[in-house]
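Researcher: Going back to the complex we discussed earlier. I've cleaned up the inputs and rechecked each line, so this should be the final set. Can you rerun the prediction on the complete assembly and write out the structure?
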Amino acid sequence: MITVRGYFAVFIALLALTALTTGVAFIDLGGAGNVAVALAIAVIKAVLVALYFMHLRYSSPLTVIFAGAGIFWLGILVALTLSDYITRG
Amino acid sequence: MAEGPGAVAHQFDDFAQQHEASTLGMWAFLITEIMFFGGMFLGYVIYRASYPEAFADASNHMDIILGTINTAVLIASSLTVVLAVYAAHESKQKALLVFLALTILLGLVFLGIKFTEYAHKFEEHLFPGLNFQYQGENPGHAAIFFSFYFAMTGIHALHMVIGIGIFLVLMFSAWRGRYSKHYFTPVEMAGLYWHFVDIIWIFLFPLFYLLGRHS
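Model: Rerun complete. Updated structure for the full complex:
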């Protein structure tokens, strides 16, 4: 299991990423560039929380499959819906 | 079979199996929550793609400083939650109570800041439906942005109110000495819920406060 020190390391990393994403928002990287950076940082933060705060890294394979199933079904929702909206004339 | 706190219910072989069942049940609930918020996130993405200028313009009405502070507050509350779970796991009664209280406090700070932001939006007539007045171009499209903003952050805030309620109940049980290294499952499950709510905010923050800021 993770130690108290590990929890604080994750906490500091999350705060640093928050400061980074706010700072980058003021730099013009082109519309798509800013979206990509902001979402990439958000995904990294979410993964850090899930792996270490929600203990997914130390959980049973079945628990990981449950969490993965949520993301997988979200993927179906997004992929099928966007495949409609993107391909409309 | 033993009774009382720490007892394993008769349908389980041992504590580990019971704990695993609770964890899986909690994750099954969180999957429904992912789909619940996922639909709203998807709606936001589609409308943002449809009206990019109006959404970028409207997002400049967000208070980026308060948003960043609130993100930090919520991350700090996630830290106090894992420390509470750790304290329960180590049978540290006093530390458990302190960290639960800190979590509730940080949750209330978040809601207080959110309430301040909402109040400003009401004063600036940016709440759709109630005398909505928008100076920029395409007020109708900006109204869609603010509808998503109030709906998604509002439902997120409702989840936090429920979470604070759960932690109050846990504090009462912890004060009665119900949790120890033999039985801390409720503290851990409440923690999973709270971290999930934290993750939702981690995505709400860039989508509403950051995108379009540079323009």
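Model: Worth noting: Residues 54 and 138 of chain B are 6 Å apart (CA to CA).
Researcher: Good, that matches what I expected from the previous run.
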